[in-house]
Amino acid sequence: MTRGILSDEFDKTQEPLPFQYHNGPLLFGKISINLIWYGNFKPSRRAIVSDFITSLTSPSSSKPKADQPSVNTWWKTIETYQRLTNSNSKKPSSLSVSSGAEFIDETYSLGKTLTSKHIVRLTSKGGQKDAVKVVLTAADVADNKLRGNIKSSKFSYIWVRNSETQCPGQCAWPFNQPIYGPQAQPLIAPNNDVGLDEVIINLASLLARTATNPFGNGYFQGPKEAPLEAGSACPGTFGKGAYPGYAGDLLVDPTTGAGYNFHGGYGRKYLLPALFYPSTSTCSTLV
């Protein structure tokens, strides 16, 4: 998978990207993130994602001084979009996310090949108000040209598949060898699970999209039909000095040798995509 060359947020020589606000609503208020597990997932694998969601708004540890940079620090970049949008509003609104309900469908009730209609049926589980529904499909579930975000007239739902089995050479970089381009050594997955660690990267990018461009008229660059958004305007960038085939200068776990850039709760480590930083018009890597 080819990813572009982008500098970190402190590189003042980077030409500002034409990233614009299109006057539409952003995600505001207290929002719960509900996880819908479709297929067979071991509890230990579900915990990788659940702990990530918890880490969005929680410190990375119970210690007085949490390890930095944290997943919460990464999410605060998204919150700057809400502050920027409401800077001239008499009633500014903020965004607060938290872990919500979890639903498990281990029986493959809709079969092992899903369409967009199936995803909508799955997201009908539980309440619809003030919640983002995230459908995660197991490695043996195929899809029929599904998209990452499925927008309804009132909300956006998120679907994330297992890239390790569905498209390892295209979607599972930097934990897998790409089909094309530079063939650098793949990174060791921080949670020792290529499939779920790649799910985290995609989920993080899609949550950023949902918060800043939920209905297609928020913040993005380029055409509305194929926009580059907060989580996708910095492709292939995870640390400073990133270029195609190289994820950037990352933190390294001294025990496992895994590459990561953010600390999560319960001692977790995660690799998260760089976000477009609206106040500087650059890509924020933080490490």
Q: Can you walk through the features of this model?
A:
The protein has 287 residues and is of the alpha/beta class. The protein has one domain. The chain is built from 6 helices and 15 strands. The strands form 6 sheets. The chain has a 5-stranded mixed sheet with strand order 3-2-5-8-7, with helices on both faces. A two-stranded antiparallel sheet has the order 1-9. Strand 10 and strand 11 form a beta hairpin. Helix 1 packs parallel to helix 6. The radius of gyration is 18 Å and the shape is globular. It starts with 19 loop residues before the first strand and ends with a strand. The N terminus is likely disordered.
Brief summary:
This protein has 287 residues and is α/β, with parallel strands linked by helices. The chain has helices at 43-55, 71-85, 116-122, 163-166, 168-171, 194-212, and strands spanning 20-21, 29-38, 95-105, 113-114, 131-137, 142-143, 149-151, 156-160, 219-220, 251-252, 259-260, 262-263, 269-270, 275-277, 282-284. α1 runs parallel beside α6 (194-212).
What's the helix and strand layout?
Elements: E1 20-21, E2 29-38, H1 43-55, H2 71-85, E3 95-105, E4 113-114, H3 116-122, E5 131-137, E6 142-143, E7 149-151, E8 156-160, H4 163-166, H5 168-171, H6 194-212, E9 219-220, E10 251-252, E11 259-260, E12 262-263, E13 269-270, E14 275-277, E15 282-284
Parallel strand pairs: 2-3, 2-5, 4-6, 5-8
Antiparallel strand pairs: 1-9, 7-8, 10-11, 12-13, 14-15
Helix pairs in contact: 1-6
Series of H and E elements:
EEHHEEHEEEEHHHEEEEEEE
CA-based shape: globular
Strand content: 15-25%
Radius of gyration: 18 Å
Mean pLDDT: 82
Indicate the multimeric state. single chain
Show unreliable segments.
1-14
Query: What structural class is derived from the secondary structure elements?
Result: alpha/beta
Number of domains: 1
For the secondary structure, the number of strands is 15
Count of helical segments?
6
Side by side, the strands of the main sheet go 3-2-5-8-7
Query: What share of the residues lie within helices?
Result: 10-25%
Main pleated sheet:
5 strands, mixed
Distance between the termini: 23 Å
